[in-house]
Amino acid sequence: MAGFSDRIGILAYALTPLSVLLSSRESILSLLTGISYQHFNFLHRWTGRIIFVQSFLHTLVWTIIEGKLYQPQPSVFQTFIAEPYIIWGCFAMLFITFLYVFSLRRVIRWTGYEFFKKSHYVVASLYIGACWGHWDKLYFWMLASLIVVLLDLGLRILGIGLNHIGYTKSGYLGFTPATAILTTFGTSPSPALRIDFTHPSPSWRPGQHYYLCFPALSIWQSHPFTTASLPPTSTGSAPHHTYIIRALSGETAKLAALARDAGGEGVTTPVILTGPYGAAVTPGTENLLAVAGGTGISFALPVVLAALNECGGSRAGLVQLVWVVRRVRDLKWVEGEMGVLRERAREGGVDVRVFVTREGGPEEVEKDVVVVSGDKEVEDGKIEGVVGTDTTILEKPEEDSVNISIIAANSSGFSITYLGGAHPDLGAVVRDYIERCPASGGRIEVMGSGPAGIGSALRSVVAECNDGRKVGRGEEKADVGLYWDDRLL
Ligand SMILES: Cc1cc2nc3c(=O)[nH]c(=O)nc-3n(C[C@H](O)[C@H](O)[C@H](O)COP(=O)(O)OP(=O)(O)OC[C@H]3O[C@@H](n4cnc5c(N)ncnc54)[C@H](O)[C@@H]3O)c2cc1C
Fold first, then answer.
1. What's the pLDDT at 121?
2. ipTM of the modeled complex
3. Which of 81, 119, 120, 188 is 20–30 Å from 108 (CA)?
4. Domain end: 107, 132, 161, which one?
5. How far does residue 255's CA lie from ligand 1's centre (Å)?
């Protein structure tokens, strides 16, 4: 029994550096394999669970041996539990239990993501220290784990330095954050934000993301956001970054409040960025269907634009962008880019289909209104929905609604469908695309980003549309691939 318990404990030690390696953002494994660090996170969670079970069994078996099997009791157990290496062992077990319990999705939802992230770093480091104290003859596994932790941290600091240290405007070497312009869309509690800045940074590929830190809010938080713009094609020009962000309840809500408090459009704030991260996404075929839901457009847009740029005017396949938005005015998030796509659609280079889920037709398109109740903004939306004596409705200038009617117009290759409270049938959308795309374009790649429901719908329909027998007969259109941009960590 003691031999079994010791061996299982040694295995838990040996798995620790691997588990740490699988969790690092500056991932050596990503460098070697080209696979994004996010995908290794799945394995990190499983190795962590295995370490927890092994540690638990090791503790249980030794407790039975020392507390029950060895005699006389309770003196044997009392001497055993007072040994310093056993006290370290108890702490290690406590820490690994904390790591396991506080990593459960339900608990993360309850404690908040930031608490999870910060406590995970601290307690994992304490766990490594406690393991070293418990059995120092196996110190090398813990040393290896610490080296990986420090390497990850060091490379991240180096990355920030490379992105931001250089000659400042005054001519001295210094740290210069990027100056980002914030644009807020809508006045709901969770508005969309657009962030734009030009800053020298390593080039990125479509679908990759940066971690953005907003020092005006906190220097202790950075969040991942997908770059919606394309990297510059010519060397020498500073890259322009665009991000489309949905304000939730943490740092992004504070960012929306910062923009709102500073007066809306054209607000600037410093940004510190690290990255780029994530695997470069390339369709690998000329038949590309990109599906985006809401802010998922930050993934789909650069993928589509890059595919169009790659082939120029002559294209054997069909590129189609499907964007599901709540309201037609959401098109303003990427108004300029949509203008470019509209032009390309007119020339026949791309097909754009927009589905508006919360409006029934152009006549229902809401004016962009700010509703003020007393001193407080309550909600954007329908004028009829607001009652109360102290309520004032401040309509945005007339030109705004003219603007919306321009971006909401149907044109050749660019269609807007109003669903009035329903979701689009993505099965029908994908099947229609497969029907229409030319066989000369080769196999089909579907790429999507957005709410999890869109991901599930795409998985089902893509699985249905694949047919090995047809592919065997040379019908490449029956070979349908799917890449889902998973934003849940
Ligand atoms: C690779 C990747 C790319 C992303 N790209 C975009 C994008 O282009 N546009 C966009 O609007 N959103 C994007 N997200 C999601 C975005 O990172 C979160 O919405 C944001 O971090 C929420 O911050 P918050 O403090 O307001 O969250 P909270 O309101 O506190 O929490 C809401 C949820 O956001 C997630 N979250 C919070 N902090 C983080 C974090 N540091 N890392 C990962 N997830 C977190 C958690 O699941 C949490 O449950 C992306 C996420 C990932 C992983």
1. 93
2. 0.94
3. 188
4. 161
5. 13
Whether residue 311 sits in one domain with residue 428? yes
- CA 485 to ligand 1: nearest atom: 1
Ligand 1 centroid to Cα of residue 151, in Å, is 25
* Distance in Å, CA 307 to ligand 1 centroid: 27
In this structure, are 459 and 393 located in the same domain?
Answer: no
Instruction: For residue range 194-215, list pLDDT tens digits in order.
Output: 999 998 888 889 999 999 999 9
Query: What is the extent of the structural domain holding 309?
Result: 287-358+410-484
Which residues, judged by CB distance below 6 Å to any ligand atom, belong to the binding site of ligand 1? Answer: 112-113, 209, 223-226, 243-246, 248-253, 278, 295, 298, 487-489
C-alpha of residue 96 to centroid of ligand 1, in Å? 26
Q: Residue 295 and residue 228: Cα distance in Å, rounded?
A: 10
Rounded CA separation 478/202 (Å): 38
344-381 confidence digits (pLDDT tens): 888 887 899 999 998 877 776 655 444 333 334 334 44
> Is residue 257 over pLDDT 70?
yes
Q: Are residues 17 and 148 in the same domain?
A: yes
66: number of Cβ within 10 Å: 19
* Atom 53 of ligand 1: nearest residue by CA position: 487
Of 118, 137, 161, the domain-final residue: 161
Cα separation, 382 vs 367, in Å, equals 8
| Start-to-end C-alpha separation, the chain | 39
Q: Which of 114, 121, 156, 252 to mutate for ligand 1's pocket (most ligand atoms within 8 Å of CB)?
A: 252
Instruction: Kindly report the average pLDDT of the chain as a whole number.
Output: 85
Distances (CA, A) of 138 to 13, 86, 129, 383, 437: 8, 15, 12, 69, 60
